[in-house]
């Protein structure tokens, strides 16, 4: 065959598999449906007058918390819920409103994160599927208990203690060296526990699940990408449970965290390779311990 003839041959690319689009369609459809539902059912809470009155000092505080929490999560691969919850509790927000606000905000931040990780091929699909169902079960159970059964004032000091434990886990992660890979056992139980504690404590999916898997020597790229992708389902399930059983309250908390997260996301993407991870990880852990101790002393 002559060179001239070979140049006329066109390579026809294979059509992408339909399943590929589901990774994009599902988060977009779910978030669009959520926005429409909130606008229809809670439009009276978002009048121009109420929104103007709500844009005060407290909203700015929640906005800054959202930015900082996203910076922590974006640079360390974990800690959004723990960081934002510790600050919100320290600022006087009750646990139910705090956890609901964090998880409704995370519906949007983790949705964007899941799409990004899929685009950059940071996902182990088998690991995601193994985490999602048990994680959702645990998160729904925790959200239901906090929204409809447990008294937020009673559990607040226990959540502060839990946040100290999460902070210690984060510090240990910062000090840990690379480990030899071990086979993951009881992945479903790990996901159930991570989802439950994430909902009832306002954070913990990343520190519990990601730290455990990384501690077993798993590849950081695929572990962080897969756990963050599964977190979208966990956040969505717990957020919907809070809305169904407790309704929407503290819209300034939600709006501040969402807008702050959108501002912090590109900043963290820029800083992720420019700042030393180990000292920042330890610094964040120490800060969370300080905030949790302050909540306990109150």
TrEMBL record:
Keywords: Cell membrane, Membrane, Transmembrane, Transmembrane helix. GO terms for cellular component: plasma membrane. InterPro entries: TM_pro_TauE-like, TSUP/Inactive_protease-like. Its main location: membrane. It is a multi-pass membrane protein. It is found in: Cell membrane; Membrane. It comes from the Bacteria. The chain crosses the membrane at residues 21-42, 54-72, 127-147, 159-175, 187-210, 252-273, 279-297. It holds the Pfam family TauE. Belongs to the 4-toluene sulfonate uptake permease (TSUP) (TC 2.A.102) family. This is Probable membrane transporter protein. It comes from Segetibacter aerophilus.
């Amino acid at each position: 065959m002559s060179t001239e003839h070979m140049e006329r041959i066109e390579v026809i690319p294979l059509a992408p598999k339909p399943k590929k689009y589901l990774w994009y369609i599902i988060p977009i459809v779910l978030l669009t449906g959520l926005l429409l539902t909130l606008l229809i059912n809670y439009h009276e809470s978002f009048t121009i007058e109420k929104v103007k009155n709500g844009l005060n000092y407290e909203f700015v505080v929640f906005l800054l918390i959202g930015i900082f929490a996203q910076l922590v999560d974006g640079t360390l691969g974990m800690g959004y819920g723990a960081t934002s919850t510790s600050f919100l509790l320290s600022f006087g927000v009750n646990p139910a409103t705090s956890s609901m606000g964090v998880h409704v905000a995370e519906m949007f931040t983790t949705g964007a994160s899941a799409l990004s990780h899929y685009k950059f091929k940071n996902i182990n699909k088998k690991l995601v599927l193994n985490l999602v169902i048990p994680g959702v079960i645990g998160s729904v159970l925790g959200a239901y208990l906090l929204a409809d059964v447990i008294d937020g004032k009673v559990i607040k000091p226990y959540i502060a203690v839990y946040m100290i434990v999460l902070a210690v886990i984060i510090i240990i992660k910062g000090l840990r060296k690379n480990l030899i890979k071990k086979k993951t056992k009881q992945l479903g139980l790990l996901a159930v526990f991570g989802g439950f504690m994430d909902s009832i404590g306002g954070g913990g999916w990343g520190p519990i699940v990601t730290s455990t898997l990384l501690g077993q020597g798993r590849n950081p790229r695929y572990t962080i990408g897969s756990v963050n992708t599964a977190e979208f389902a966990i956040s969505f399930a717990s957020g919907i449970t809070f809305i169904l059983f407790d309704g929407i309250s503290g819209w300034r908390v939600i709006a501040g965290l969402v807008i702050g997260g959108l501002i912090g996301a590109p900043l963290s993407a820029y800083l992720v390779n420019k700042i030393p991870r180990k000292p920042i990880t330890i610094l964040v852990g120490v800060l969370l311990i300080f905030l949790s101790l302050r909540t306990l002393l109150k």
